[in-house]
């Protein structure tokens, strides 16, 4: 296992009011993303527990692009990764960001 | 001073019928083995020894799907003192026996098109010098050469049934047979057919009997490979996302009605999204109505939902026969009710009458050249380079073709501007075993060097490719104005592969502003729609239900 953490400044606060969301599954080649709205509006934190070691550089690029494209300010993402490919990680993160944009039920 | 005599040199030729005389001599040598045209399976090797001469060009019908397997075993067993050093000219190198012929020395030289199941072994044998390679062709190209400089002396073909006059019924998998027979029979060659049964009257005449010299009844039906069945259960969310991008970002804006799909999972996902996502976008009747396509089971839901007007097929697909029989409005069928396929005609249809080819590949380089060759495998080309190329002889206009031509050359004079076929490569940035789809240099180049080939085996040349679709978005290469834009457009959809991470972020940003690169969010694609629940069928069993029980999947696809 490897623990990684990336902190970014987001352009703007994530839309919507949802406080918490979970998407995905912990399985081989897949991942689970927990999103919580508990940071200052300009901040974004992504913490990763991954089964595949030595991919820090790729994670760094994936997370930086995600923050740039979706601007999820104020949200902390916790990822439990089962060795997913970058395309799957990007998709799950986009889905988590999209869930947070919903209004809280 | 001129001393030449008018009237030129007289030919030293003694006869203008040498080919016919040679054929008649071969037929006479086999006469004792045949009863009329019928030869017993146990005499098949003897028949081949009688009619084939050393060094002959032989077409051993190995198609994309059906295989003349009895005749290939019979040929493998010949006495090398009688038959050796053959030049095989066949579209498919599919059975182990096809390569055993070279191991044993029965055959020496090979011209072919496709070697999917034998891709690893054929590479080894080429490296080892066991095979003298002519060239790897596309189907249409090899068929063309049958009529010019690779005409077979002997064709060994497969059919479902024959009558005693040699009339053949090829059934749904007609495939290459009419082309092979045409070239052989009308140029003094000999045609030998293996059939599953000999009957009094064939259900329909696919090959007239006067083109067939011998018929051998096989003890079991010829082998057919189910090549075009993709299990919806194996389709991933990334593949669904690429399919949504293609539908919304290419099918819709160009209005692509006439097209061909490759055999990968991305295009299977497109087929399964037409009745769901396509319906939601209001595209029914506006896109994907006319196909040059094998009978893909994954297209059943779209057919049943009224999307598809008609389909012409290269070959058939195992398990689809009864479904096809029940849908003659959609498929080409004979008076007997079953599918009539024809690889040569369908390839021509794909080349000249389709506005788009969309398919997967294994490697794409920075110019957009793509290849399915890796250093240890040579799968050949089949039909993709022909489907996936701009037909320079095309003259009829259509909206997608004109629109693509306009994007490539916005300043050209419209009535003099060529249109362009849409040639789309689709895939995830990382493929099987995390192999990157994008590479700085194709493995095909290393292979060409190793084998001393004059041409690297490139599946689709970059200048024919118009769009590349990955889960990262669509790169429209028609809108690129120079090589560096093209390179950055490709890097821009290459995701987190080494090629993608080496992108020039500022230039990619500008290309995105110009719509050269379009991300899922640029197209308003909701990442939540990239879900398996969006597939019209999520399993083979769902496809059976959609077909009303008419689709009978082969056992390897059944898990119930």
UniProtKB/TrEMBL annotation, chain A:
Coiled coil (residue ranges): none
Location in the cell: Cytoplasm
Annotated signal sequence range: none
Origin superkingdom: Bacteria
Residues modified to O-(phosphoribosyl dephospho-coenzyme A)serine: 28
Chief place of localization: cytoplasm
Post-translational modification: Covalently binds the prosthetic group of malonate decarboxylase.
GO cellular component: cytoplasm
UniProt keyword list: Cytoplasm, Phosphoprotein
Entry-linked NCBIfam families: malonate_delta
Name recorded for this polypeptide: Malonate decarboxylase acyl carrier protein
Source species of the chain: Bosea caraganae
Automatic annotation (TrEMBL), chain B:
Sequence segments annotated as region (Disordered): 384-410
GO molecular function: transferase activity
Domain of life according to the entry: Bacteria
Listed NCBIfam families: mdcA
Name of protein: Malonate decarboxylase subunit alpha
Organism the protein comes from: Bosea caraganae
């Amino acid at each position: 296992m490897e623990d990684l953490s990336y902190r970014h400044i987001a352009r703007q606060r994530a839309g919507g009011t949802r406080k918490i969301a979970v998407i995905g599954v912990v399985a081989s080649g897949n991942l689970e993303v927990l999103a919580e709205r508990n940071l200052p509006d300009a901040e974004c934190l992504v913490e990763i527990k991954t089964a595949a070691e030595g991919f820090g550089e790729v994670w760094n690029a994936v997370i930086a692009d995600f923050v740039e494209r979706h601007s999820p300010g104020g949200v902390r993402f916790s990822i439990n990764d089962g060795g997913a490919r970058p395309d799957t990680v990007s998709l799950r993160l986009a889905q988590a960001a999209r869930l947070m944009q919903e209004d809280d039920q | 001073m001129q001393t030449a005599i008018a009237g030129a040199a007289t030919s030293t030729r003694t006869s203008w019928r040498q080919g016919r005389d040679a054929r008649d001599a071969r037929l006479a040598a086999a006469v004792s083995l045949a009863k009329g045209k019928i030869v017993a399976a146990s005499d098949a090797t003897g028949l081949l020894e009688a009619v084939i001469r050393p060094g002959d060009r032989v077409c051993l019908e190995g198609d994309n799907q059906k295989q003349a397997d009895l005749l290939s075993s019979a040929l493998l067993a010949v006495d090398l003192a009688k038959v050796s050093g053959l030049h095989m000219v066949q579209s498919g190198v599919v059975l182990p026996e096809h390569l055993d012929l070279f191991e044993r020395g029965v055959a020496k030289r090979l011209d072919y098109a496709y070697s999917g199941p034998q891709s690893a072994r054929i590479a080894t044998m080429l490296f080892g010098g066991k095979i003298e390679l002519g060239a790897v062709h596309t189907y249409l190209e090899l068929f063309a050469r049958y009529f010019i400089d690779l005409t077979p002396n002997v064709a060994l073909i497969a059919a479902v049934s024959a009558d005693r006059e040699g009339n053949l019924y090829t059934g749904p998998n007609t495939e290459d047979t009419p082309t092979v027979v045409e070239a052989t029979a009308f140029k003094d060659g000999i045609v030998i057919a293996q059939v599953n049964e000999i009957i009094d009257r064939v259900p329909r005449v696919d090959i007239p009997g006067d083109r067939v010299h011998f018929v051998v009844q096989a003890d079991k039906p010829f082998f057919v490979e189910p090549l075009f069945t993709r299990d919806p259960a194996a389709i991933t969310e990334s593949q669904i996302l690429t399919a949504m991008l293609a539908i919304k970002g290419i099918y819709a804006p160009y209005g692509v009605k006439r097209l061909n799909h490759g055999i990968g999972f991305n295009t299977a996902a497109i087929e399964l999204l037409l009745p769901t996502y396509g319906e939601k976008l209001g595209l029914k009747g506006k896109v994907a109505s006319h196909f040059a396509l094998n009978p893909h089971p994954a297209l059943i839901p779209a057919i049943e939902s009224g999307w598809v007007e008609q389909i012409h097929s290269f070959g058939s697909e195992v398990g689809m026969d009864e479904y096809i029989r029940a849908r003659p409005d959609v498929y080409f069928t004979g008076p007997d009710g079953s599918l009539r396929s024809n690889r040569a005609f369908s390839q021509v249809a794909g080349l000249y009458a389709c506005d788009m080819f969309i398919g997967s590949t294994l490697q794409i380089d920075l110019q957009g050249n793509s290849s399915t060759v890796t250093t240890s495998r040579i799968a050949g080309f089949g039909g993709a380079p022909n489907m996936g190329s701009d037909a320079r002889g095309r003259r009829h206009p259509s909206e997608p073709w004109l629109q693509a031509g306009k994007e490539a050359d916005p300043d050209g004079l419209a009535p003099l501007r060529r249109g362009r076929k849409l040639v789309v490569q689709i895939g995830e940035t990382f493929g099987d075993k995390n192999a990157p789809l994008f590479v700085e240099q194709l493995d095909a180049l290393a292979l060409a060097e190793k084998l001393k080939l004059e041409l690297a085996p490139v599946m689709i040349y970059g200048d024919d490719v118009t769009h590349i679709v990955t889960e990262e978005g669509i790169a429209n290469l028609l809108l690129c104005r120079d090589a560096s834009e093209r390179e950055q457009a490709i890097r821009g959809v290459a995701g987190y592969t080494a090629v993608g991470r080496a992108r020039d972020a500022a230039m990619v940003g500008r290309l995105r502003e110009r719509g050269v690169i379009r991300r899922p969010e640029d197209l308003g694609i909701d990442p939540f729609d990239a879900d398996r629940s969006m597939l019209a069928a999520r399993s083979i069993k769902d496809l059976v239900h959609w077909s009303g029980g008419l689709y009978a999947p082969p056992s390897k696809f059944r898990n119930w």
